[in-house]
Write a structure and sequence with these properties.
This protein is α/β, with parallel strands linked by helices. It folds into two domains: about 140 residues, Aspartate Aminotransferase, domain 1; about 250 residues, Aspartate Aminotransferase, domain 2. The protein is about 40% helix and about 15% strand. Strands 4-10-9-8-7-5-6 form a seven-stranded mixed β-sheet, with helices on both faces. A four-stranded antiparallel β-sheet has the order 13-14-17-16, with helices on one face. It starts with 20 loop residues before the first helix and ends with a helix.
Length: about 425
């Protein structure tokens, strides 16, 4: 993945210095907890990352001192709240290196963002017989909305296969592209395996066929710098809670000309210019897609999370996490019976694994009693599990606050699991 750092505000952690893991961990109050009298080892950031105190304080401060509904109020609190809300939009633009703030739409999360594109762009511009390409790596949120669209209007869904190592098969993807391909929707990084998809090549090939591209960036956003202009991607989405921000808010980036051509996804307040019983006219993007009272405090938390990542620097974060991933891969392969699934050359800091004769749910239950939190199951990627020939995996996903000692704690816990089932 790209190691180019995002622009960083003044103050906070200095990425020019060595990555100070203890200072970082001190920013996350929950990491001081004990689980069953053992120090918490949180290895589930791919599902939802923990929140630094900077995010918690920003939301608390806004709730205590500046909260009001946004945009239409003339009183001081509404103006202050509106300023905070739109500052968050600018932060999201900066985070994605989008060209215009009008290209940033707030949603409840990446799931809603993908459904928005399917329901608005898909239903407005696609027709029966058109093709959408997804991949075997996808989260259900990037499969089901397109199936619903297929059932409504009769589009066809094509699936890019993966290799035995979990890698995206680019040559197979290129063979699927054709004149009927109208949209390609793939993950930037697999949530279940950590596989990094060669998205620049995916986008260039799709554009050569006249298709638009949506990238699910949920698992890329916490780990690497993103430049939507350099990628030339048409739609990009991520969720706030994956980047150490609050739940309930996500971002959809879309090229302005596409967003303004798309019909509204939902109707209500804020997205209108005028309403009569005969006719309603709508605002331009982004507001035409933000019906109703938005996620005001969540937006404040999202901006704080973005600023936190900027203060650390994506280059420093990526280097730290790459070290943790390499160490975890080495340590876990030394545990008898453990087999790692997903060994593509380009990976984010996610390790998915199975253990001989031990169900993933048993692994999760036992290591939890040792204070280690991992995710077990199909990870909302059942087609991928079918391709790998397993019902479920255990997944350790590492964030910027994890340490080698925590990897050791997981490995030691797995040794105990093995002994219990030997």
């Amino acid at each position: 993945m790209s190691s180019s750092a995002l622009a960083r505000p003044q103050g906070g952690h200095n990425a020019a210095l060595a990555f100070d893991i203890e200072a970082v961990r001190a920013d996350f109050p929950i990491l001081t907890r004990k689980i069953y009298d053992k120090p918490l080892v949180y290895l589930d950031s791919a599902a939802s990352a923990q929140k630094p105190v900077q995010v918690l304080q920003a939301m608390d401060r806004a709730a205590r001192t500046s909260y009001s509904n946004v945009h239409r109020g003339l009183h001081r609190l509404s103006q202050e709240s509106t300023d905070l809300f739109e500052q968050a939009r600018e932060a999201a633009r900066r985070f994605l290196k989008a060209g215009k703030v009008e290209e940033i739409v707030f949603t409840s999360g990446a799931t809603e963002a993908i459904n928005l594109v399917a329901g608005s762009y898909g239903q407005g511009f696609l027709k029966a017989g058109d093709e959408i390409i997804v991949s075997t790596l996808e989260h259900h949120s990037n499969i089901v909305p397109w199936q619903l669209l297929r059932d409504r209007i009769g589009i066809e869904l094509k699936v890019v296969p993966i290799g035995d190592d979990g890698g995206f098969l680019l040559e197979d993807y290129l063979k699927l592209l054709g004149p009927r391909t109208k949209l390609v929707a793939v993950a930037h990084v697999s949530n279940a395996l950590g596989t990094v998809v060669p998205v620049k090549a995916v986008i260039d090939a799709a554009h050569a066929q006249g298709a638009v591209v949506l990238l699910d960036g949920c698992q890329a956003a916490p780990h690497t710098a993103i430049d939507v202009q350099d990628l030339d991607v048409d739609f990009y989405t991520f969720s706030g809670h994956k980047i150490y921000g609050p739940t309930g808010i996500g971002v959809l980036y879309g090229k302005q000309e596409l967003l303004n051509a798309m019909p509204p996804y939902q109707g209500g307040g804020e997205m209108i210019r005028s309403v009569t019983f005969e006719k309603t006219t709508y605002k331009e993007t982004p507001h035409r897609f933000e019906a109703g009272t938005p996620q005001i405090l969540e937006a404040v938390g999202l901006e704080a999370a973005i600023c936190y990542l900027e203060s650390l620097g994506h280059e420093a974060i990526a280097a730290h996490e790459a070290g943790i991933l390499a160490y975890a891969t080495e340590r876990l392969t030394q545990v008898p019976g453990v087999r790692i699934l997903g060994t593509a050359p380009e990976k984010a800091s996610i390790v998915s694994f199975v253990m001989d004769e031990v169900h993933a749910h048993d692994i999760g239950t036992i290591v939890d009693r040792m204070g280690v939190a991992v995710r077990v199951g199909h990870h909302c990627a059942e087609p991928l599990m079918h391709r790998l020939g397993v019902a479920a995996t255990a997944r350790a996903s590492f964030g910027l606050y994890n340490t080698r000692e925590e990897v050791d704690a997981l490995a030691d816990a797995l040794v105990k699991v093995r002994k219990l089932f030997a």
